[in-house]
Amino acid sequence: MHLESLTFGAILVVVNVSPELLLKCYRANQRNSNPFATSKVAAAKKTNENHQLAKQYRERLTRVMDEAADFYAKQMKANGFEVKRIPFDRDSKKLLNFMIVQGKEPWTAYNSKQLISADKVRKECLPVLYAAGLNPDHETIVVFTAIMEWDDKLLRFRQQSPYFGMGNAHSGFCWQFDAPPLDPKNLLLKTPNIDDGEFGIISAGRWNSLMIGGVIHELGHSLGLPHDAERPAELQKTGTSLMGLGNLRYAFERRKEGLGAFLTFPDALRLASHPFFTRSAKGLAENDRSSGVFEELACENDGDGIIVSGRVNSSPATYAVIAYTDGEGRSDYDAITTSAIPNAEGRFQVRCDTLPHGKQIALRLTGLQVNGLTYMQSGLNFVMTPAGKMQTEELKQTIVLLPILNQLRAGRADEAARLTAALPDTEPAKQLAAPMLTPPNMRPLTAEGNSVSLCDLRPSSATVGWRTPAFDYSPEDLTIRVAGKLERRGIYAHPPSTYSWTLDGTWKNFHAICTVRDEETGSVVFVVTVDNVEKWRSDLINFDTRKECDVDLTGATSLKLTVEDGGDGSFQDHGFWIAPVLTR
Q1: Which of 318-342 are b and which e, b meaning 16 or more Cβ less than 10 Å from the residue's Cβ?
Q2: Do residues 112 and 162 make contact, with C-beta atoms less than 8 angstroms apart?
Q3: Average pLDDT, the chain
Q4: Helix (H, G, I), strand (E, B) or coil at 348
Q5: What would the pLDDT profile of 166-222 be if each residue is shown by its tens digit?
């Protein structure tokens, strides 16, 4: 029977890559139709609906994952690393093995690119994974979803399903989607055209470039690769970085439509120590987490670039350092990378150039350890003026602050205070460090005068959803940076977050700026409650929005500040009450 129009159920496909270097694939039972060969096959497992599997789905997805493994093997070799392909668990016919996972709700319940949908998919996969003896905390899981609408007569495709990835040497998780035309065999096709809801009417070949490139890109995230961009010279001669926007141009060269995607050297350098490519988990115990740190950092302007130097301290050893310089405006997709090899004493020096003018630049340093783990120092920001002049004053302040902030992060407030006191009074960083030295539960209960920062008053209770309550610094990345500037006063409020104060009835007003810290992509809602009555609620606030809060406190005896998740999960919801002030 020809299925003219078909809506896919929320049925999940799980592909697993274990630290033991065995790749197992689990394929969901789905109702499906292939525009290139429509026919029925028997259901692999009885479900609560009468679903059909697409013809040769195992062969098709085996080819997709083989395409991904081939890409990484070839690109690693092109970057000078002799590695073997990611191994797969196969049957006697050399096809990947599959297992069925059935979604619990209609497909529309999952049809969103928000993280909350991805989390829902993951949670429904977990019981099946555990039942199969797989622990996602020690596996790399790739989920293909069948959350879409497909018309095999009109070749019309629509989806808004989750598409993410994250991971490290221990484990990873990424979300993909499957569709009937998805097949590396179709990469060369210039006809027929597919009507895609996101990319328009494009050839079947280009559609597969986008989708297979996406599979390989998200797999990269699950192996620990962040976004990065190609350099201008690479764009002209080599192509587009896979972990930038290269997933949109994958295999273009095969159809002679331009340069395709490639793996940058720093990306290959990161993968070189991953257990999938080393074939070894030596030095990677089950619960190991990186303990590496960057020390003695310094920076200096150097013509059209900046030189960053320092020392790495880790066990096991750090074999390379990667610097990511990321101009604002395109998330981290346009981060330019530079790498360096530390010497025997752990000292390194990197020169960062090709910096975009007229933008704030986020500098991130990542240390690569020989067991596959990594550690990062972020919060190193500076500005490139439209004329190409680097303004690094705040970066230098941040570097001075780092030893103090690291002591605070480790709970050693006395040592942080000692380091702060040792700074010259003329050092601007000293003024930033001073308010951080007293934790919330050690601040005074009352204040004199007609105006006081709420950061200077001890809360009667304080809870946050991630890490610990903090005034005047971020327990995640230590500094508070909003709209490109370091903020001296602020209350950390990762949801669900609640801070409460007992007041004496003499305060008249509360004022603050509500926002999410720079470089975070979450969304939150701020709420002010006075004497158990909600007095103010913000709209949805994310990384590029700020909202002034102004609330009457006349006669109030209690104040509660709450930050809620914005409805898409709490990932990267680093909310802050900036410059919170009480006035009489």
Answers
A1: bbbbbbbbbbbeeebebbbbbbbeb
A2: yes
A3: 84
A4: strand
A5: 999 988 888 988 888 999 999 999 999 999 999 999 999 999 999 999 999 999 999
What's the Cα-to-Cα distance from 564 to each of 117, 244, 468, 495, rounded to whole Å?
A: 18, 32, 16, 5
| pLDDT surpasses 60 at 30 | no
CA dist 154 → 17, 192, 202 (Å)? 36, 10, 13
Both tokens of 21, joined, read 């270097």
- pLDDT range class, residue 329, cuts 50, 70, 90: low
pLDDT grade for 286, boundaries at 50, 70 and 90:
low
CB 261 within 8 A of CB 228: no
58: helix, coil or strand? helix
Secondary element (H or E) of residue 214: helix 204-222
Domain boundaries in the chain?
Answer: 6-73+80-179, 293-409, 438-583
Q: For 224-272, write each residue's pLDDT tens digit.
A: 999 999 999 999 999 999 999 999 999 999 999 999 999 999 999 999 9
Torsion angle, alpha carbons of 260, 261, 264, 268, to 10: -130
pLDDT band for 124, please (50, 70, 90 cuts).
confident
Torsion over CA of 175, 177, 178 and 184, rounded to 10 degrees? -80
**Which fold would CATH assign to domain 438-583?**
Jelly Rolls (2.60.120)
Rounded Cα–Cα distance for residues 377 and 310 (Å) = 12
Paired residues of 145 in beta bridges: 12, 177
Outline where DSSP puts E strands in 487-557. Answer: 490-492, 497-502, 509-516, 523-530, 533-537, 541-542, 546-552
* Cβ neighbours of 200 (radius 10 Å): 9
Q: Give the separation between CA 175 and CA 214, rounded to whole angstroms.
A: 10
Fold assignment, 293-409: Immunoglobulin-like (2.60.40)
Q: Which two tokens stand for residue 313?
A: 């301290």
Residue of higher predicted confidence among 430 and 509? 509
Contacts 24+ apart (CB under 8 A), 417-421: none
Enter the tokens of residue 369.
């350890």
Give the pLDDT confidence score for residue 50 in this predicted structure.
Answer: 33
Q: Which two tokens stand for residue 256?
A: 């002679």
For the whole model, what pTM was predicted?
0.80
